[in-house]
Write a structure and sequence with these properties.
By secondary structure, the protein is mainly alpha-helical. The chain is built from seven helices and two strands. The chain has one domain (23-168).
Length: 170
């Protein structure tokens, strides 16, 4: 009898707890970022820096290519020591190019640092706005539909992207 009452009590508690379903919301980060002028400005600045740095790297690559072509043209006339010297110069230049690429585009390079300084504050503001809205409206989960590839369909009624933009003042 006690077991039966315990089982009935558990079923009732599960039924009650399931009526308090968690609430979900979606945001579209691309949609939000496209409507923030500071993000577009930061992207243009990053593109400009990337183009500038890539042209510096390309100049160095062209210089190495010219050194290699000259080496290929002179190879028949060079002594063994001179061949080794020029080969070492070319290898040294190629290593310098790789270091320059890492300096600009590597995991801890200048591009990464610039992205951190320009874009991360914008993303942090968006995150804070989403967090505030989720807390106020009782959302248990907020999913970014732009990066969630497994979402096939979601009702527009649960998209809070416009609320995030208005919270940010856009």
């Amino acid at each position: 009898m006690k077991k039966t009452l315990l089982i009935i009590g558990l079923f009732i508690s599960f039924a009650i707890s399931s009526t308090y379903a968690q609430r979900y919301a979606l945001i579209d980060m691309e949609y939000i970022l496209d409507r923030i002028p500071a993000y577009e400005s930061a992207n243009k600045q990053l593109e400009s820096l990337t183009t500038q740095w890539q042209s510096k790297v390309d100049e160095q690559v062209e210089a190495v290519n010219a050194m290699y072509k000259k080496y290929q043209a002179d190879i028949a006339l060079l002594s063994g020591a001179e061949k080794t010297k020029r080969e070492n110069e070319i290898v040294t230049k190629e290593n310098a190019i790789q270091e320059l690429r890492n300096q600009y585009f590597g995991p801890q390079g200048e591009l990464f640092k610039q992205q951190e300084s320009l874009i991360k504050p914008i993303q942090d503001n968006i995150y804070d706005a989403v967090k505030e809205i989720a807390a106020e409206q009782g959302y248990a989960v907020v999913v970014d539909r732009a990066s969630a590839t497994s979402i096939i369909f979601a009702s527009p009624s649960i998209d809070i992207s416009d609320q995030v933009l208005s919270r940010l003042g856009y």
